[in-house]
Structures are given as C-alpha cells and as structure tokens.
Amino acid sequence: MTEPLVNIAGVRLAYGGGAGTLAVDGLDLSVGPGECAAVVGPSGCGKSSLMKLVNGLMPPTAGTIHVAGKRVDGPLKIVGMAFQNPTLLPWRSTLDNLLLPLEIVEPYRGRIRRERKAFEAEARALLSTVGLAGFEKSLPRQLSGGMQQRASLCRALIHNPALLMLDEPFGALDAFTREELWDVLQRVWMERRFTTILVTHDLREAVYLADTVHVMSARPGRIVTRRRVDFPRPRTLQTAMLPEFTDLVNGLREQIRLERDDAAAAKESEAVR
Amino acid sequence: MIPSVRRNLGTAMPWLIVIVGLLLWEASCRAFDMPEFVLPRPSRIIEALIADFGAIWFHAQHTLITTVTGFILAVLFGLVLGILIGSSQLAYQGLYPLLVGFNSVPKVALVPLMVVWFGIGTAPAVLTAFMLSFFPVAVNVATGLATLEPELEDVLRSLGATRRDIVVKVGLPRAMPYFFASLKVAITLAFVGSVIAETLASNEGIGTLVEQASANFRVPLVFAGLFVVSAMGILMYVGFAMIERRVTGWAIRPVDFGIGG
Ligand SMILES: Nc1ncnc2c1ncn2[C@@H]1O[C@H](COP(=O)(O)OP(=O)(O)OP(=O)(O)O)[C@@H](O)[C@H]1O
Ligand SMILES: [Mg+2]
Q: Measured between CB atoms, does A106 come within 8 Å of chain B?
C-alpha cells in the first residue's frame, strides 16, 4: 500500500486551551496520494477546524498530523484552499487574482518579476479549463457567483499544490451551477490528480466527487464511518441517477441522522444526570 | 425620470438649495426688518465681500496655507498610526483607548497651551488643524486594515505569507477607499481647527478677521469671512472626492451624488 499523503492520528483540538470547547477528539483520517476524500457531518462538528489543522494554521491540542511524510508544525505552502465565499480581491482583475499565490509562495515568488508572462500564460490556460476564457481582465464584481467560485478554484490551483482543500466550495450556488462545477472540478482533478479534501453538506456532491466519504460525529467530531465510492470516472449526471448512487446517498443520510440523534440523546441523558 | 435628467438635477440640486436658501434668508430679513448687527441680509454680506476683498483674500490665503499644512501632517501621521493599529493587535489594544481619550479633549482648550509653547501665530493654528484631522484618517485606515475576511487570511497564511505580505498585498489596497473617504472629512476638520486657533491666537487668517470684525460689530464682514471658509472647504472636499473616485473606483458604485460621492 502506498504511503498516505495526509495522515491524521488521534487528533484532539480544544479551542481556548485544554479546558475550552472540544471541537474534535480522537480524529483519525488518512488520504492517499491523488485521492479525493469527502468529509461530511452535522453542522459544528469540526470540519472547518479539521481544514485548519491539516493546513498548519493551528496546532492540534493532542495527536499528530503528517502531510507528505512530514509532521505539520506550521503553514504548509503546498496546499490550495477555497471556501464557500470566493474571497477574490475586488480591486484585482481575475488574472491578477490568480497570480496572488505566486506572489507569495516560493519558488514562484522569487521568479514572478522575471517570468510574469509565463505565469500569466499558465493562469490563462487554467482559466480556460474552467470556462473563464475571455474574463481575464474582468473585476470580480463583473462576474457571477458561479464564475467567481471558478476563479477562486483556479486561485487555489495556480501554484500546483499537492493538496487541495475545499470547505463547502459550492455551498452558496444554485443547484444547476453547483452540478456544473462538480464536472469542472472533476475534470481538473482527473487531469492533474492532486489529492483533495472536500468538506461539504451536500451528500450527493460528496458521492459524486469523492473516492472515499468520511462521516464525522457531532461535536467533538471524529470519523464514525467511511464509505468507498467506486463509480467509474468521469462520473456524470447519469451516474447520479443510478440506484446504487441513490442508495449510497440515502445510507449516508441515515448515518448522519443517527449521529445527530445520538448526540441529542447523550445531551439529554447528561441533562437528566 | 429619464436617467440623464435625474443626473443633471442631482448636480444642480446643491446650487438650487443654496440659491433658494439665500433668497428666503434675504426675504425674511427684509420682512422682519432684522437689525444688521444681529443677522445681515445676504446682499449686505456680498457687498462686504466685495468691499473688503483685499483683506479677505489676504487672510483666506493664510488660512488655506495653515490648514493644508496641518492637514498634510495629519494625513502622514494618521496613515502611519492607522497602519500600526490596524495591523497589530497589540498596538491596537495599547493605543486605541489613548486615542479615544485624546480625541475627547476639546482642541480649543489646548490652544492657550500651544500659545505658551510656540507663541501667537501660525504654529498653534497648524497644530490645531493637525490634531483635529488626524483621528479620522487613523481610524479609517485601521478599520480598512482590520476588516480582512478571515478566510482570505487563511488562504494567504497557508501559503506562507508573512504579516507584512498580508498588509502590503491585501490590507493597504483594501484600506484605500476608507483612506480617501477619511480625507474628505479630515480636510473639513482641518479648516475648523485652524480657524478656531486663529480666532484665539493669531494676527492673520480668517479666524482673526472674523474675530476682529465681530469686535467692531461689522457682522456682514464676519459672515463674509465664514462664507469664504466654507467655500474653501467645499472646494477641497470636491477635489478629494474626485481623487477618491479615480483611485478607488473598484469600490464605489456608479452613482452620482451631486457633489461627487
Ligand atoms: N475560533 C473559535 N473559537 C472558539 N470555538 C470555535 C472557534 N471556531 C470554531 N469553534 C467551535 O468549534 C466547533 C467546530 O467548528 P467548525 O467551524 O470546525 O465546525 P464545522 O463542522 O465547520 O461547522 P459548519 O458545518 O457549520 O461549517 C464549533 O462547535 C465551534 O463552536
Ligand atoms: Mg465550516
């Protein structure tokens, strides 16, 4: 078996010191190189916290996180991130927004002055793979929400990260745009095969895109179930209509409902005591 | 309404209101036979403006130079201070209460102190203009820097951005609209500051002119002086509004607000 790219072992995170809110506890998760892993779970279970931990933005209270064989102890620089909110800089054109990571992360940072033309060409190519050719000079406010999210995805990928982390990237989009972007993401991923961790509330999205779906418990979050998803790629909306697909989604939905009820019951019995 | 008519009306509106206001003022002064040393009619004020043009021009120039000097100092200082408190939590916590405290002190009360330190003349006026106008600049720049989306900060930090990278690439450009908006407010406050100080401790400037004119019951001249100050204030404001629109067009919705923003 190949070495996992991301390996999380026994991680606990307490906000506000050891006695503070436990966001995650006893979290184990590993993601192989080139794999697309989806993480689903009830709201507030620590999914965004998990992202920050893997990124090295916060140290875990206990446990270890390894990425690409090295223990994480600070910002990683080999990670691309995108969120529900596209967070493009409103004063920069789409193209210049894409170049932002290259102005920051080494080795591009040292080269961008001299090789700007080459980098711009790369950015243009990336924009056209997500269907944004012709919008290089547009400001973010001249783009629709879906187009901004495409640009945000490109910004996360421009420095060829080994790991892409997406936190509900399509959560704010309408159903049609969302499904369109699933295909965009799948296409880019199939071309480049970066490892992906996708946090989402949409179970169909998780099953459509992921090789493995990890279900988290209510807070403090840990992984309670994993499901492999073996539908052949590229998956299409036809795939999403297969009975096996629907069964898998319904199974996951049931699992999360149980998790939520368990948590509520646990709270209740605590209150009774 | 047709958009172009609306826009023209928008530009004409301030002028219309001023003219109508002056006409009402003139009419009611005449109707109630208002004594001139209480409230002069606008036509008398305009007469005074023309009759004493030389003196007013001399003092106005002085006030303008004083104000602009104080204002420039305030912008530089406010910018540095704003960057400091906007980009460092520690500086914010340490300095903000102090700043609020300082800003609560009426600056008029400091003018006599400055006379003790610097003597009667330009220095107290420049300093009063400065003290009154750096605060909005500092606060606005700090706000612009501090209101960074946490997600964007995460994106940048995960790429290994230093605090300086974040301030330069994101913080400062984001603060620019706030900065230019603050200039419009700051310049008007600078006029207030310099004129106050001139009234109390100077031999030159519109403040002095107004003070002496009112001592001699030349009330039309008092009003003429005040008109000139507010005209200078409006001109500077419009100038900065125009610069603001050019520099930070990405942040301003394409709506015409008459006096430009
Ligand atoms: N900065 C913080 N300080 C203190 N507590 C926090 C902080 N951020 C998150 N938490 C707590 O940690 C828990 C997990 O938060 P997190 O944002 O990781 O959840 P999430 O799974 O991403 O939720 P959602 O699905 O609603 O986005 C929450 O219960 C929250 O109260
Ligand atoms: Mg979240």
A: yes
